[in-house]
Amino acid sequence: MQRNKNQRIYYPVSRKINIALVGNPNSGKSSLFNVLTGLKQKVGNFPGVTVDKKTGTSQLSENITANFIDLPGTYSLYPKRADEWVSYKVLLQQDETLKPDMILLVADASSLKRNLLFCTQIIDLKIPVVVAFTMMDLAKQKGTQIDIPGLERELGVPIVAINPRKNKGIAALKKALELSAENMQQVPARDFIETDEIVQKSIDEVKLLFPQISNYAAVHYLINHENFILNDRLQDDIENIEIRNKFNPTKTQADEIMQRYTRIKHIMQQSVIESDPLQKSMFTEKLDNLLLHRTWGYLILIGVLFLLFQSVFWVAQYPMDAIEWSFGQLAGWLSGVLPAGWFSDLFINGVVAGLSGIMLFVPQIMILFGLITLLEDTGYMARISFLTDKLMRKVGLNGKSVMPMISGFACAVPAIMSARNIENKKERLLTIMITPLMSCSARLPVYTILIALVIPSKLYFGFLSLQGLVMMGLYLLGTVMALVVAWVMKWFIKSTERSYFILELPVYRGPRWKNVLYTMIEKAKIFVFDAGKVIMVISLLLWGLSTYGPPEKMRTVAAEFDTQIMNNPGQAEEITRLKKTALLQTSFAGTLGKAIEPVIKPLGFDWKIGIALITSFAAREVFVGTMATLYSVGDNVDETNTTLRQKMNAAVKEDGTKVYTLATGLSLLVFYVLAMQCMSTIAVVKRETRSWKWPMIQLAYMTGLAYLMSWVVYVIFK
Question: Residue 319 and residue 314: Cα distance in Å, rounded?
Fold first, then answer.
C-alpha cells in the first residue's frame, strides 16, 4: 500500500489506568475481581493496617491496560471500621500509594435500594464510574424487574448486568470500561443532593482551597479533614471555615441520607418494578427459620463445626502421612548416597527435616481454608457468626471469632490466618492471642501417650471411657481458658475503634469450586513462603543445639561408647542407641535441659522432660520422638508406643521414685494444653501482627499460665 510522503501515521498510545473496585459486602466484588484479573494478582497490605490489598491487571483493549484495586467492602462513604477507612481514603484521593482514575462499582441487584445509596455517593465524587449489577437472577426470583437503559439515564453512568460466577457479561463490562477510559472527563454534572445555603457556602470556600474536587467531596473534607493528608495550614483553614459558617457535620450527614433515599425512591419508581412485598417467603427465608432457630440452630451449628473439625483431622491425615512417609524415604535415600559428615547431617536432619515440618501443615491449611470458603460461598458462615456473637461479645470478641477458634482445634496456623475477616482490630488481635489455647491436632500424640501412661483404662456405665473423658477435659480446658484470657485481655488492649457487628445474611448459593481451589492454593503459598522462612531458621537452630555440645565432653562420650561397641560387637545396636542418648544429654540442648531442671522440678519434671519441652518447641508432636531417643527406644513404628510407654513407666528419679506418677502426668498434660510450644504459630502471629511484640507477649503469658496451672495440678495430685 502506497502513501503520500507527507502523510502522517498516528500510532495509538498504550496506557495504564487504575480502577478501584468497590461495593457493598457480599455483592460479588471479589468474584468479579478474580474473573477480571485471573492469575495476574498481587496480595499485599495497605500501609499501617492489616487489611489485604489485592491488585491485579487486565487488558481492556490493545492500548489500555487496567490495574484493578479490590477495595474492602463498605456500605457508605461514612466509614466506621478500619477496612472502611481504607476504601474511603482511596476514593477521596487521600491514599498516597493509590490514586484511582476510574471506579468500577459492584451493586447487588436483588438489594437495589441499599446498594444505590453507596452508588449515588460514588457518582457525586465526579470520578468516572461504571456500575456492574450482580445477582440479577436472584432479583428475578424475587420478582424484581430492572430497566437498565432507563436506570442508566437516571444515574447518568453506564450499567452492565454481569454474573461473574458464570463468566457472563464480562466482555460487555470490559467494553464499557474501555469507553469510559477513553472519555475520562465525561461525568454527570448534576448532584443527587441539594445543600442548604450554609452548607453550600462552606463547600464554596473549601473549593477555593481545592478547585479540582466536587461539591460532595468538599463535604467530606469538612467532615473528615483531620484524617486526610493535608498540611497544618490547610487543616487550620478548613477548621476556620467550619467555625465561621457554623457547619454541623451530623445534621449535614443526616440531611444527605434522607435526600438520597428520597431521590432513590423516585429513580426506582421510574426504572424498577418490584413484586408484592406480601409474596411468600423465599427458600433462603425458610431455611433460616430452621438454621437460626433458638434451639435447632445451635444444635445444627454444633454438628457443622464437629464435621468441619473432624473432616480437617480425618481428611488431612492421609496427605500428611504421605508427606511424612515421602520425606522419610527421602531422608533414608539421602543417608545412603551422601557421604558421612556434618554437612550431610545438617542437610538431612536440619534442612530436610525443616522442610518436612513446613510441608506437613500444608494439607491442613488447604483443607481448612477450602471448607471455610465453602461455608462462605454457601452463605452459612454469616449464620455461624450471627449465632455465636452473643457469647463471644461477653468476653471481648464477636461472632466472627468463633471460626478461627474452632479451626484452632485442627491447627492454630491456618486458624490465625483466618482471623483476617474480623474487621475490628482489637477483636481480631484478641482472637489471634487466644486461638493457640485451643488444643490442636499436634497435641494429640502427647495427650495419647501421657493419658495411656498415667490414666487407668476404666469404663463407667459400660461405655464411658475414663481416658476418653480426660481427653475431652483437656479440650474443654483449652476452650474455657481461651475465653477467660480474652475476657482479661479486653481490659488491657485499648482501641479507639468502636466495635460494630453489622452483618448481612446473604442468600444461600452453590459453591464456586474454582474460587475454593484458588483460595486453598493462595493460603498454602502464604504459609510456605512467609511463615516457612522462620520455621526453617528455628529448625536449623534446634538441630545445632541437639547435635553439638562442649567439644571435649562430646569426644569423651563418643570414645567411651565406641570402645564398648568394639568390645561387644553383638550389642552394637543397643550400645549405639545408648550413645545417641548420652550425646543428646551432653549436647547444648541436653545441657540446657539440665540447666532448667531446677525451674521445672516444682512441676514434677526431670531434665529429660526439660529437653523434650525445648525440642518440642519446633512442633509439639516432637515430644514423642524426643522421649523415644532419650529412653533409647528403637525405630520400629509398630512397637514404638508400647515400648516407649513401658520405658517411661519404668523410669525412676535419682532417689528411686517413679518419674511418671499421676501428678506428673497430669501436670505435663496441662502444660501442653496451655503452653505456646509451636514455632509455626509464633511465626504466623508475627506475620499477621507485623510485630514481634504480640508473639512475645503471647509466648510469655501462655508459658506463665501453663507453669502456674501445672504447678497447681501437681500440688493437688501429689
Answer: 10
CB 324 within 8 A of CB 521: no
User: Of 417, 359, 416, nearest to 619 (Cα)?
Assistant: 359
What is the Cα–Cα distance from 458 to 452, expressed in whole angstroms?
11
Looking up cell 536440619 gives: 350
Strand 459-460 to 159-161 pairing: unpaired
Please identify which residue in the block is written with the cell numbers 484479573: 37
Q: What's the grid cell of residue 417?
A: 490466618
Strand pairing category for 459-460 and 464-465: antiparallel
Q: How far apart are CA 421 and CA 665, in angstroms?
A: 39
Q: Tell me the residue type at 559.
A: A
> Among all chains, which residue has been given the C-alpha cell 511463615?
531
In the structure grid, which three cell numbers stand for residue 34, read together?
478474580
Return the C-alpha cell found at 183. Answer: 472519555
Q: Show the cell assigned to 62.
A: 490493545
Show the beta-strand stretches assigned E in 497-625. none
- What is the rounded distance in angstroms from the CA atom of residue 421 to the CA atom of residue 43? 15
Label residue 519 exposed, middle or buried (CB < 10 Å: 0-12, 13-18, 19+). Answer: buried
Cα 375 from Cα 359, distance rounded (Å): 25
Q: Which residue has the cell 477521596?
A: 92
Altogether, the residues listed in the chain come to a count of 718
Euclidean distance between CA atoms 130 and 176, whole angstroms: 7
Place of cell 535419682: 654
Q: Where in 211-350 does DSSP place strands (E)?
A: 272-273
In this structure, the number of other CB atoms found within 10 A of the CB of residue 234 comes to 16
464-465 and 64-70 strand pairing: unpaired
Burial 573-605 (b: 16+ CB within 10 A, else e): eebebebebbbbbbbbbbbbbbebbeebeebbb
**Whether the Cβ atoms of residue 613 and residue 600 lie closer than 8 Å to each other:** yes
397/650 Cα distance (integer angstroms)? 46
| Phi, psi torsion values for 19, nearest 5 degrees | -120, 120
Q: Are 356 and 327 contacting, i.e. CB atoms less than 8 angstroms apart? A: yes
Quote the CA–CA distance of 378 and 523 in Å, as a whole number.
20
The answer to whether 31 and 78 are in contact (CB under 8 A) is: no
Long-range contacts of 501-506 (CB under 8 A, 24+ apart): 501/385, 501/389, 501/393, 501/398, 501/399, 502/75, 503/382, 503/385, 503/386, 503/389, 503/399, 504/24, 504/25, 504/26, 504/382, 505/288, 505/379, 505/382, 505/383, 505/386, 506/26, 506/379, 506/382
The alpha carbon of 548 is separated from its chain's Cα centroid by a whole number of angstroms, namely: 38
Q: What is the mean pLDDT of each run of 10 residues along the chain (718 residues)?
A: 44 75 85 81 50 80 88 85 83 87 91 88 92 87 85 91 87 90 72 80 91 92 90 92 90 88 89 62 72 84 72 71 79 78 71 71 75 79 75 76 76 80 80 89 75 79 74 84 90 66 64 78 74 65 77 86 83 78 80 86 86 77 65 40 61 73 91 87 86 92 94 92
**CATH architecture classification, 15-190:** 3-Layer(aba) Sandwich (3.40)
User: Nearest Cα to 714, choosing from 655, 660, 669, 666?
Assistant: 666
Q: How far apart are CA 103 and CA 91, in angstroms?
A: 8
The SS3 call for residue 455 is: coil
Amino acid residing at 485: V
User: What cell was used for 603?
Assistant: 512441676
Give the strand pairing for 102-108 and 129-134. Answer: parallel
Contacts of 718 (CB under 8 A, 6+ apart): 604, 661, 663
Query: Can you give the C-alpha Rg of the chain in angstroms?
Result: 32
Q: Which helix (H) or strand (E) holds 33?
A: helix 29-37
